[in-house]
Design a protein that fits this description.
mainly alpha; 4 strands; about 475 residues; two-stranded antiparallel sheet
Length: about 475
């Protein structure tokens, strides 16, 4: 693999991100010394664990020494809930290895050239199409993790079209995350909370559809305006320096290996890999609404990535030795990103080991119970934002929080549908802010962009989103958004 791989995280970006997460690990550790330990009783319902409202009690603080804060990223691999980080690590290793093989075979460049040649005269249409595709996938089908690897393909296309890495992320990662928050029929942020709240499945969609369209238009305007600015003057790009090496590499490869001169081997390899990826996406959409099958979609996608990468190398004419070396180098390139993922997950591990997760939830619920309807609805939103810092999974957060939030909603006079909407907003939009979100770190590790550059680009948009979501929550309270 060439040194300037499209999937190699930059050293400076890694150090900045690692420093931020390390600081958050320390803050989490300090909280375990400041807050009292406590716990709720839990019951098993349909294979899921629900907390019992009113069962909170303080307990003796567990012995959790300071030195364990710093080994938490590795300690969590042996924890009872270690399956998610392990699966993610395996997944990104497979993606890295597969893409490295395809780069060695020239397939990545052929794919970029194909997309560039098709949309060179309709560039902004491509932005709109991709934003809608990613937003729709997340909003209606709940597809998120499985689409993150698409960043690998979109970013080089954006650079080849005269834009930059952030534009590529704006066409893929940004709508994917915001689509998850602008959910209409998302099974994880809508169906599960509505089921716990005993609401009709996917009821109240009319307001969520309006919200989806508002956010879609906002993202299109944001990304297109930025793309035009970069196209007019590339040096105005926030990621100009980080993109230089990749930009030069893509220009060189495009000159030496244009699509119309691609070898038959490269074309066969491209068809093979594209077929594998298409099949994986079809599987993801087909299983999205079935929780048990949806759990299998992620591993299946990893397997198809692996088959597509190795098969692409074989069809591309690579020898076994080159495939093996590219495979190993691809995994090595992802080691820094893997460490960041472990560090991100360790924040929750520290909080859980200190037994203060339920304490945070209990005190937040108390605050909501003493508030008038408008304030209570906004507090539901704020508490979900807080809990999303520690618990990234939407479904896990729903089973943790909704048994508490629904009785509180009835008590303070806001509808259950409004509570579900506020929960949904709090779960989704902060995914693009929190460095404890492993999927954000994985997506950024596919590029040379670090967390600080990402926040520099998106913070104004995040403030606009916060304002819009607040207006929608207050509107829902005013109209008694229901059915109940």
């Amino acid at each position: 693999m060439e040194e300037n791989s499209t999937i190699k995280i930059g050293g400076k970006a890694f150090l900045f991100s690692a420093a931020i997460i390390l600081a958050l690990m320390i803050v989490s550790g300090v909280l375990t010394k400041v807050l009292p330990a406590g716990t709720y009783d839990r019951i098993e319902t349909e294979g899921r664990t629900l907390i019992v409202d009113g069962s909170y009690q303080e307990i003796m603080r567990p012995h959790y020494p300071v030195w364990r804060w710093f080994i938490a990223p590795f300690e969590l691999l042996g924890a009872p809930d270690n399956l998610t980080p392990i699966v993610l690590l395996i997944f990104i290793a497979i993606v890295g290895a597969s893409i490295a093989i395809l780069e060695s075979a020239g397939v990545m460049q052929a794919l970029v050239n194909l997309l560039v040649s098709r949309f060179s005269n309709r560039k902004y249409l491509l932005i709109v199409i991709l934003i809608f595709f990613f937003m729709f996938s997340a909003s209606f089908a709940g597809v998120y993790e499985e689409m993150v690897p698409m960043v690998v393909f979109i970013v080089p296309v954006a650079i080849s079209l005269g834009w930059d890495t952030l534009t590529g992320l704006g066409m893929s990662l940004l709508p994917l995350s915001f689509g998850f928050a602008a959910a209409v029929t998302n099974p994880f942020t809508i169906a599960i909370p509505q089921r716990i709240a005993e609401l009709p499945l996917f009821s109240g969609s009319w307001l969520r559809i309006i919200f989806f369209l508002v956010i879609f238009c906002l993202i299109c305007v944001f990304v297109i305006r930025y793309a035009k600015k970069v196209e007019a003057d590339p040096k105005r790009s926030i990621s100009f320096t980080e993109d230089q090496a990749l930009r030069i590499k893509l220009q060189k490869n495009n000159t030496e290996n244009p699509l119309d001169k691609a070898t038959p081997q490269q074309l066969r390899s491209l068809v093979w890999f594209a077929s594998c990826i298409t099949l994986s996406i079809l599987i993801v959409f087909a299983t999205a609404r079935h929780p048990i099958l949806a759990d299998l979609a992620f591993p299946l996608m990893a397997v198809l990535f692996l088959i597509g990468g190795i098969g692409g190398g074989i069809f591309g004419g690579l020898k076994a030795g080159i495939i093996s070396r590219s495979f190993v180098k691809g995994i090595v390139n992802f080691l820094p990103g893997s460490l960041l993922v472990l560090m991100a997950f360790s924040v929750r591990h520290i909080i859980s080991s200190g037994m203060i997760m339920d304490t945070i939830l209990f005190r937040s619920a108390q605050l909501i119970s003493y508030s008038p309807p408008l304030s209570a609805a906004l507090l539901v939103y704020a508490v979900t934002l807080l809990m999303n810092f520690f618990v990234g999974s939407a479904s896990a957060k729903a089973f943790l929080m909704m048994p508490l939030l629904i009785p509180l909603a009835d008590l303070v006079g806001i509808t259950r549908q409004t509570t579900v909407m506020a929960f949904n907003f709090g779960d989704g939009f902060s995914n693009m802010i929190y460095p404890t979100n492993a999927l954000l770190l994985i997506a950024l590790s596919f590029t040379s962009i670090g967390y600080t550059k990402w926040m520099r680009w998106t913070w104004k948009l995040q403030l606009v989103i916060l304002f819009i979501t607040t207006i929608f929550v207050l509107f829902a309270v005013k109209i008694n958004y229901g059915p109940y």
